[in-house]
Amino acid sequence: MRILIFGATGSIGQSTIELIKKYSRRYHLVGISYFHNCKLAYKIKKQFNLRNNQVFCSLNKDDNQINNFIKVNKPDIIVNAISGLSGLKYTMLSIENKIDIALANKESLVSAGKFIMQLAQKNKVHIYPIDSEHSSLSYLLNVNKKNSIKHLMITGSGGPFFHYSANQLKSVSYNDAINHPNWKMGNKISIDSSTLINKAFELVEAYWLFPKYKTVAINDPFSQIHSGIIYKNDTGIVFKSKPDMKMFIEMALNKFKCLKKFDKHIEFLDLNEVHTLLSNSLFHNYLLGLNYAKLIIENINTAIPPIICIADEISINKFKNNEIKFLQIYTFIDKLVNSYKSFNIKSPSDIFNLYWLINSSLRK
Question: What is the pTM of this model?
Fold first, then answer.
């Protein structure tokens, strides 16, 4: 399998490269993109004997250059490991080139799910999610093809501040927020986890990836259960493992085919265990991020989904630069939603125009 990685120097990119090294007979790295970590990109280039046209700095590159990069290197699958809304462009261009995607960029589906799913269907492109929740759910649905599903569930640890009071949250720092208790992740997703916005985005991802079913979020503070299926007879199955993204990347690259090495992580639930799981909740009086899932889904064909993605990204940078406090992330997002919700979104290009408009207005 010929693999091209967009965002090779980040956390998901590095985990993918470790997998490629481990299974070198199965996987072949044909290209990488990076943003600013030139030193690590050069190390990868040297390690895999990549040519100059197989290494791509994404800074200030236009669509034609990205298209040429894809066409020259002819991947079988593209791993989109780019963080933030900038990853949307790479998702769209991958699909336009009719290349299957292993997708870690959740903002793509949150901001432009309708356009992505329509284009993927038109071009017969498969989207294989990398997030542990959606990856394991895809596997569970492949293993247990039953028509009696009541709903799906994804889990979340609640991040580092799940049990904090309002007073405690007022004084948390950026460094506190990126210190996730269970996962080693990039800074943006770590902040999103601390606000629960990441879990909201994952519920929206599930809305697009598993449209037949309702998906709920529950709390697992240890990040051992990643997802589950609850059946109409109140039995269920869950996927359990240690928090290690390499497994879920491998599952996506294997297109969720049933393998014994993954089957051992599936556990069946009895009635009491199901009710115990569902009695847990990710809702919190002060961590308001999960509420954005409902807001996005109820307004899925409006400008609200991309506005929340854009506002979230900007607010994280403001929090990092001490321009706003942690709890002001929510008020900042709400303010931008109210200001731009009437913006008309007819195509993905409108989302990029909205991104430029919002950023430009904030620089004045």
Answer: 0.95
